[in-house]
């Protein structure tokens, strides 16, 4: 007799495309109809639903989350849990912490996923949030993808070690092992020829600090004649375009907008860039590694431990001048770019293949406690 599919209720502050949502789609698509998925987007944005592939048992619950105060929301959340009786409540990041409060009696088994912080916590943890996590998540299984977050959960939030699960992000490495697709790159404004291409893929949000990347790009040694490609969209787009124009960078900075198939653009990058103020274990970095790209990045989160050791000299402090120097140093060594890219690809294949991640999530989703 076939066991009924377990029902998982997933809560996101937003279901707009981002790292946690892309990982969610990877996992859900892999398991197919093994589980039944109910999805709540606290802000009502559900564009990531388009990444889910049939055949699945998945649907969005349309809840009036924006109405009423805190107590009204808690009543709504408790009513939703009572009505649907999921086998597992899965919440994601700080924006969903009120669901932990609504489920404080533990009547529904709870898995909380923490992927990192916004710009307001790039420098330090906010005391109110620390205490909320400490009190509300003590009896909850908490998943973190990075060693950095694991240390914070233990030492800052004070959560018990037995409640914490570290699952590194994984990707389909074969998907990113592509040759250069010149025609596809050209359709996104990356024309063949010219100088080296420094590229990044990111949501255009403050914590990604792409303004730092543009400022660093403006300082790169002129002899290299590089181009900068920024793939993604978000609220910071207009300001970044204005910054590039004000610096006189003209058509040397290319904004492609969002691209659902980054594996087709990555091979056209000479280097991959990451300029964030805060990261944990960025999927875009794994994708660049799988595509065999050398990386220049700010030294944040787990970035250093993710990259091949030979890439470590090109990590920088969080300032534009240091980032520009790292770009120049690497562009001065074209042979090293190829060597580093190959080392990153090998490390991604051996350490961050998605099958390891799928096995770990199956254990979490099937847990009966």
Task: Furnish the topology, listing elements before pairings.
Layout: E1 6-12, H1 19-31, E2 35-41, E3 57-60, H2 70-84, E4 88-92, H3 97-102, E5 110-113, H4 127-136, E6 141-144, H5 147-155, E7 164-166, H6 182-187, E8 197-201, H7 210-218, E9 227-231, H8 237-246, E10 253-257, E11 271-274, H9 283-290, E12 294-298, H10 303-306, E13 315-316, H11 320-331, H12 334-351, H13 354-366
Parallel strand pairs: 1-2, 1-4, 2-3, 4-5, 5-6, 6-7, 8-9, 8-11, 9-10, 11-12, 12-13
Task: Please tag this protein with its features.
369 residues; alpha/beta; Rossmann fold; 2 domains; seven-stranded parallel sheet; 13 helices; 16% strand; globular
| CATH homology superfamily of the largest domain | Glycogen Phosphorylase B
Low-confidence stretches: none
Tell me the helix content: 25-40%
Question: How many angstroms does the end-to-end distance come to?
Answer: 23 Å
* Residue-averaged pLDDT: 93
- Helix segment count? 13
Element-by-element helix/strand order:
EHEEHEHEHEHEHEHEHEEHEHEHHH
User: Rg from C-alpha positions?
Assistant: 21 Å
Beta content:
15-25%
Tell the overall outline. globular
- Work out the number of β strands: 13
The name CATH uses for the topology of the largest domain is Rossmann fold
CATH architecture of the largest domain: 3-Layer(aba) Sandwich
Report on the biggest sheet. Answer: 7 strands, parallel
CATH class placement of the largest domain: Alpha Beta
């Amino acid at each position: 007799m076939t066991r009924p599919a377990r029902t998982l209720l997933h809560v996101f502050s937003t279901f707009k495309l981002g790292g946690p949502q892309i990982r969610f789609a990877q996992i859900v698509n892999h398991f197919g109809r093994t589980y039944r998925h109910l999805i709540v987007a606290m802000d009502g944005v559900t564009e990531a639903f388009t990444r889910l592939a049939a055949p699945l048992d998945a649907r969005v619950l349309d809840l009036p989350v924006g109405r009423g105060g805190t107590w009204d929301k808690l009543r709504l959340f408790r009513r939703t849990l009572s009505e649907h009786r999921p086998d597992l409540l899965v919440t994601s990041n700080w924006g969903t912490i009120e669901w932990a409060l609504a489920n404080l009696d533990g009547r529904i088994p709870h898995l909380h996923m923490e992927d990192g912080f916004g710009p307001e916590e790039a420098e330090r943890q906010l005391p109110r949030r620390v205490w909320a996590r400490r009190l509300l998540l003590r009896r909850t299984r908490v998943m973190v993808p990075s060693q950095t977050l694991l240390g914070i959960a233990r030492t800052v939030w004070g959560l018990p070690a037995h409640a914490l699960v570290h699952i590194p992000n994984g990707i389909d490495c074969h998907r990113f092992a592509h040759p250069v697709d010149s025609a596809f790159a050209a359709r996104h404004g990356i024309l063949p020829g010219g100088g080296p291409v420094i590229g990044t893929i990111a949501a255009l949000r403050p914590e990604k600090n792409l303004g730092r990347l543009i400022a660093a790009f403006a300082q790169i040694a002129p002899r290299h004649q590089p181009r900068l490609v920024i793939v993604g969209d978000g609220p910071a787009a207009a300001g970044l375009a204005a910054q590039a124009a004000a610096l006189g960078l003209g058509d040397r900075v290319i904004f492609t907008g969002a691209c659902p198939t980054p594996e087709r653009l990555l091979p056209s990058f000479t280097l991959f860039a990451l300029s964030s103020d805060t990261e944990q274990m960025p999927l875009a970095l794994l994708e660049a590694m799988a595509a065999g790209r050398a990386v220049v990045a700010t030294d944040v989160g787990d970035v250093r431990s993710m990259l091949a050791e030979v890439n470590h000299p090109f990590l920088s402090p969080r300032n534009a001048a240091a980032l520009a120097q790292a770009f120049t140093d690497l562009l001065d060594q074209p042979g090293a770019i190829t060597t580093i890219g190959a080392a990153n690809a090998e490390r991604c294949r051996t350490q961050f293949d998605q099958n390891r991640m799928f096995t770990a999530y199956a254990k979490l989703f099937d847990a009966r406690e």
